[in-house]
Amino acid sequence: MASFNSTCTNNALIILEGLRLSVTSIKRKIRPSKKYTGTTEEICRAIINDCFDSKNNYFRVSPNNFKQFWARDFGMCCESLIYLGYNKEVKQTLLYAMEKYEKQGQITTNIMPNGHPLDFPSHTPESSAYMLHSLILLNDKKLIEKYKTFFSKMAEYIFENDIDKKTGLLRKDKHFSSMKDYAFRQSDCYNNCLLAMFANDLKKIKVNTPLSNYNYKKNIEKAFFKDYFLEDLSGRKILGEYIFASDANIFPFWTKVFDAQKKDKSLFKKIIINIQDKKLDYPWPLKYTTKEEASKKMHIANILCPGYETDTQWIHLGLCYMKIVSEIDKPLLNKYLFQYETLIQKHKTFYEVYDNNGQVFNRLLYKSDEAMLWCSIFLQLYLENKKNT
Question: Which of 104, 181, 239, 299 has its CA 20 to 30 A from that of 327?
Answer without folding.
Answer: 181
